[in-house]
Amino acid sequence: MLELKRFWLNNPNSAEAVQLCADILDQANRAEAALAMTRLKEALANGKSDDERELADHPTAAFEAGYHMIDGREYELAIMLLSACLAKEPLDSTLNYEIGFAYMAISKYEDAIQHFEIARKGQNDFDTTLNLSVCYTLSRRLKEAKETVAILRKQAQNEEEKYELLHREVVIKRLERMARKKQLTERDWLYALYGTVELQPSDVGGSSANQQSKESYKSIAATLVILKGVLDGLQLVPEAVEFYNPNSRPLAAVMARLFDVQLDSYKGPDRPDHALLVMEWATDIIGPHEAFVGNMTNRSMFAFGLTKQEALPVVPDIVARFTNELNLPWTERNGLPPDVQPEEAIPEILERAWNLESDPEILRIIQDTVEYYNDKRELLVLGNCAQFPQRPEYSAEVPNSRQV
To answer: Does pTM top 0.90 for this prediction?
Structure first.
């Protein structure tokens, strides 16, 4: 699909590319999308050469194919197909909404805004206004973002829409407090959009953003010592530590020893004391995520790694690595077996953690992190259940610091 995409974007009228896409989608058991591509190929072919074909001559087939490309997260291809339709219907609300959504998904917010504004003229509904508000927010155009939120207040009807409205209001409030900061880091955006704590800035000084693909015992230990120090500094020390699955057990076991508290496996949403639930990778949330949506006093959630690309139903309260790749010594990598079993890693990490507790660089990172979040406490999800009874959904919309 990647090779096809490169070719097709350079040859938008190629019937051969459309047919190959149909074949790929069919093999991937995406029957409806494959059928849409087949219809587009038949419309394009019609006895003409590639030089004579034009996607714009077949707007219905191109729109249907583009819609399925959005569903399959092939946003550049969707934009190519839907843009061809604009020649015939430049003011069509549905078409502009879909192409706006595709632009928003690849972080081209100004392009998305233009199309959402056109879509809103003909279809001024909650979803269109919401996406427009998101794009204004991510572009740091807060005046326009607040104006669209004012419209959302009138449009919100059901509980889900009212929750989205409250979330957008909080995001704007967080961003207003950082209005004087010329350029926001990914840590800033993670806080602004989700109220989440990141232990170390992932786009400053080449730390976790450019980390080696394989975590060492020392880097894992350093992260856990920083986590302990930050929770101490924010006065949010847990009474127990839980691990979610075997791969997260080494992380949780070390944390339990550092805090000198009980270690448990996760047994369900309810428990009498406050626990720190430790996950290796935030995508573990995807399964029984309903149990984690509620932000209750009996549990905080920490994930060692949070993806930059994949949307999740819930965002953790604390993350260590904001990255697209996480390789711990006890996890399989590219089909290769792990270096050790999870249990074997615990004493190795713990020894290094104890040696790092007085390390000047670690203490500096802890102090900087605590200072960063101290004046943001009331808008953090962590330790703030009354203000945020529900954890936000993670849509992976954090802009790169070079973009905004």
So the answer is: no
